[in-house]
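Fold this complex.
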Amino acid sequence: MAGRVGIVAASMTKFEAAKPYQHLMDLVVEVTDKVVEAAGINLKDDVEAVISCSQDHWDGRTISSMPIPDAVCSHLKDESKVAGDGAYAVLYGAMHILSGDNKLVLVVSHCEESITDGTMIENWSIDHIFHRMLGLDYTMGAAMQAKRYMDKYKLTPEQFAKVVVKNKGNARKNQYAQEAMDLTIEQVLKSKMLADPITELQKKPVSDGACAMILANEEVAKKLTPHPVWITGVGNYYEAHNPGDRDLVECAALIKAAQKAYKMAGIGNPAKDIDLVELSEYYAPQELLWTEGLGLCGRGEGGKLIDSGKTQLKGELPVNPSGGLLSGIPVTVAGMTRVAEAVWQLQGIAGEHQVQGARRAIAHGCGGLCGQMHCVLVLEKGGK
Amino acid sequence: MEAVKKEPVLFEGYVIMPYKYSVGSLASKFFIKLRDSKVLSGAKCPKCQMVNFPPRSVCPKCFSKVEELVELSGKGKLETFTVVHYESAVQALKPPYAIGVIKLDGADTAITHFIGGVDFKDIKPGMKLEPVFKAKRDANILDIEYFQPA
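Structure:
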């Protein structure tokens, strides 16, 4: 990368199953106020550009420029929107900085999933000529992907359930988490069956909330904080939309994204060189498949990795110490919270789920049916 | 904030938008053959010979323009599946039902569709399947009622 992009500060709302007492603009104001205070800057004078991340169907209005400019103070400023996952807003924020055009950028993501029926929105994202009429949605896609995973690599429902026990357990230490639970594997497996093998507790719950971040160029970041977190590697790849165009267990886009990010950051062996991972598991089986795609274990070894205990909060390589998406994070906000959690870990301010001595982390955002698109960021503290 | 938490005011809203999607010339030919002759066809790339199914007019492998449809037997193999137990407003069937990814013989890409005519416990990846067509067909993908063991 030409030059360095620093993340100065991050903020989140508390995530809740519903926030009927807050307009979506209130959510954005809340995280913007918090992040501006944490960064010690002036919103009106210091922020040169704003990138918001949201999805029109979720918000029930077709233009983010209606509520957002007031909330982020972007009148007569450079403002644009990412309609996808929040990790992409971070990526585009970094591009703004790397272009040399802006020195300081605010990125913000928001979603109130509780206000509508997410299954309908997912169905609207499916190919409308050949597949939408079937009523296909992301839970069915994730279930077919998990079945393929079990078929090819012999993973078990118990291994998927362990992810839920771990992540909702980790959430007990996270003040922003929505669903902190003390579960057993049996409870996870006995919760309502949605689409075999995925039970209700293996699916991310409906959630409302927001996240924000201040990005700056090297000079400004160093001035603003003694603890900037640097984006040292980025990879972003898409693959075919239709599940039948790919082998669902291959997660080819994630593998490419990870390899590109690692090469940029000079990481030879991610399993050894990384201190923690915050990844986007909308469904429990995805965490195991994504750890494979991220190269944290060999192909087909995601089950063994969770069995080994290495990915536990106190393990060698904690995965989702925050509780992950399974603890309750909305879509679009999802990937940005992965980055924000990693930033707090590297700044040493994660709280009770702090991974001691963390110096280098991976944050992963993903979206689309069966994980069509993946964005991997390598984050580091200190300097090269 | 406490007062608002006690009685938040919520407005109801609905998005009901009419659309007439063009399926394109290749898919139009596909759907008419399906409706009139119960024939499933794939799109054959003139450059790399890949057969994509369901048929799209750009080859997903080499991105060439594809204009030729080739008839397929309709028989194929199940790649993966799930049994759906929850309801949603957009589902075409009442749960429980099986849905899976089916690769037809002679095609290089697969379609997602329903699996029927079989006990859920007997559905296995790799099993041979064939299409069951609806008696009354409307030139859409639901003209295939489901795929059953062949």
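Residues 24-39 of chain A form the longest helix (16 residues).
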